[in-house]
Amino acid sequence: MVEYSRLVAEEITTTLDRAGFESLSPDSFHIDVTDSFQRKLGECRPVRQPDGESGTDQYQIRIARRLFDDTCDSQWRDTVRHEVAHAHVLSTLGQDVQPHGSEWKEAARRAGANPTARYEASDDLLDADYVLACPDGCFERGYLQRTKRIKYPWKYACNECETRLVSYDAGDCPFDLEPGTCYVATLPWETSDDRETPDTSQTAPYLLACPNGCTEWPYQRRTKRIKNPWQYTCPECDTTLVSCDGRDTPTRFDPGSCNVESIPWSEPRIIHACPDGCFSLGYAQHCEETRHPNRYRCGDCNTRTVSYPAGQQPSDLAPGTNYTD
């Protein structure tokens, strides 16, 4: 493994020189050549600094050891360049861009890498809507439905490394995976801590709930979920959720409505969408996505997004246009 790590380090240095990534240096990287990847070829993650410490950004690059078994070394070299391009995008633009979007593709070309997402396909991931995975890369498994494992990944651990699992929408894997976290966009929680005990609901000022009475979640603050309940669905019956004051009865309200007395809206006011119809998401207030849709691209078709007032969709949507101002 030491010899392989040395080869990776040399390729990183060569790639940085070739690409001119001035925000990075060879010392920015921690290298791990691993046998744990069954499907992945490589991975790049930010390395968290200990509390109270500051310094230059650090990144861990992990490369599948099996790539070095090939008689041709082009595959592992391309994988290293691929991951260095990820590090460059993270260091200059942060995590608010598509992992393999236009920014990364440009960086990959500069690095001398094939500018496409690369992995060894697994049949159960080809048509999956959700993914259950080990955050350390030991495995990934696709699911068509939001099963218990997708909803509550913190209840399960990897058989290889015993790390708590994560779940996320297929094609939308976060850069920085926190063990035991559910990243599925339509579920109203991320970790077990988000699911407060039923006793709390008796005193909580706000509720997020299924209008069919399946379940409810108490909140002490007017979070994004309370303000935009239509973005989430019940994990039991798939009905769009509602929000209301803690003293109210959620089953009184229509699905997808915000009924908190101190919030001056009850339904979406602004739509952020793909002009080709791949997705549409409602917001009650302006956010970064609706103010600057030209900065975002659809994860399915890579088209720049648009925003417009709810109920007033223009007939001809020009990619990257804000129709609300």
From TrEMBL:
UniProt-listed SMART domains: SprT
Pfam families: SprT-like
BP terms from Gene Ontology: response to stress
Signal peptide segment: none
Source superkingdom: Archaea
Domain SprT-like: from-to ranges: 10-168
Protein known as: SprT-like domain-containing protein
Source organism (scientific name): Halococcus salifodinae DSM 8989
